[in-house]
Structures are given as structure tokens and as C-alpha cells.
Amino acid sequence: MKKHLVILMSLFSSVTLFSQVGINTENPQQLFHTDGKSSAATTNPTTGVPSVAQQVDDVVITNQGRVGIGVTTPTQSLDVNGRTRIRNTDILTSTTVSPIFVDENGLVGKANISPQSQIAFFTSTSTLTFTPSNYNTGSDQIVPITSSNQSLNTINATIPSTGNIRINQSGNYLIGASLNFGLRSPATDAKIFMALNIDVSRNGGTSWTSISGARPIFVLYWSAGMNQSYTLPTVINNFNVGDLIRIKFYRTFAGTSPQGDNVDQISLQAGYGAPSFTLSLTKL
Description:
40% strand, 2 helices, Jelly Rolls, seven-stranded antiparallel β-sheet, mainly beta
């Protein structure tokens, strides 16, 4: 008798382990399946797979522990086919709070960058001094941007060497820059002829091409020197991973003759509410 009882209990255990439980349905699709039957149109068939319309009031739990609401084949731990509401959303005080996003498949998670602010912004309020003789002879003067000048960077741009910013996300970018010069010249009513450029290199810095530029003439009326600000034209450019960007300025020449007057002091410096320089890279 005891032997028969053990066999019978074993059979019931087997049925319990491998059976599916259905509530309001004789055709459960998962380990646990409830059909809400909220209307005739949403009532599941007795055989076959329920249609999308019939699943809208269903709740299932799979043998993998996944929960489906409004869907009988959940692909994630919680798979909801419909709107989700959280009634209480307390203010979080943790310093590691991150925004969450939803991709085109409905997956919820954190993002490496914020779609609302895909930008790198570099600026400085320090005085950056350049050698006047180098400028007077027409040598390129590279704005010495460093990682300390980074005030915002959600595109993972890096600075492999002073003055060179490396693009690490391919795409179209909106590029803008401004420079605030501190200039002095030994000449009376001096005119400073200057070229300003945003350059890009696609071969690691071997060669450079201008993507934005201007040729301002700064007029100095005071022998003690003046601040002269200039904003370069904003441009859109396509970048690849590894491209380098820099800002440079130099004295212009007409043939072999330098234009304008020499300087005996040249720097980038904050003044009159303007920073020494700015450079913004906005990924579109």
C-alpha cells in the first residue's frame, strides 16, 4: 500500500512540475496564464496562439521567470505591451542618479550620452600668452586647449596632445569658436591683420584643412593695448572617429610681405565679460 502511495505521489509531483496553469483560459501559453476576458474580442481561443488583440488583457509568467502584461511571449524580465504608470516618484538624493531612455524597441535603460546635449565645450578664463616675434613672422599660433578647459563633454572627445581635440563619435557636428585677444603694438593707431581658422586633420595631424575661417583687421587706438574679440563663423562638418580639430591664428601676408603692424604683446585673455576662448562641438 505504501509503495502504491509513493508511486501515486510521484505521478502527481510530475504533473505539478510540468503542467501549465490557466485562469479563464483552457489554453495557457506559459507556466502561468491569466486571460482577463474583458470583452468578447479579447477572449482567448481554446486552441492555437491568441492574437495580439486577444492578448491585451492577459498576464503570463514563463518558466524563465519573465512576466508579460498584454503579451504572452515576454522577451525581458518584465515585458509590458501598453502604457506604464508609477504612482509615487520620490525625489532621489543619490549623487549617482542617471536619466533613463527608451530605444526604438521599447527597451528602457541608461545611455552613454544624452540626446539632448551631445556636445563638447571647451573654454578658459586664464591668460594664454604667445611669443610676439613668432606671430610677427607669420608662424601658426595654436590655441593650447587642454583637458582642464573642458566644461562639458558628452561625446567622449579627448585631447591626445595640447591644442588637438580628437573626435571619438562619427557624425555631423555643428562647430563654433570665439577668441578674445589682448593686443599691443609699438605703432600708433596700429592695424593688426590676422587670420583665424578652425582646422581638421584626418591623418593624425600630418596635414590640416581649414573648415571655418575669417580675416579680421583689429585697429588699436591705445598704446596700452586693447581687447579684441572675434567669433568664427559656425559651420557643419562631418567627422570620423580619429579626426583632430584645432584652432589657430596667424598674421596674414601679401606675397612675402607681412600685412599690418607688428605686435609687442599678444595673448588670449578674459575681458569685458568674454572668456579667453571657446570651442563648441555639437553632434547633430
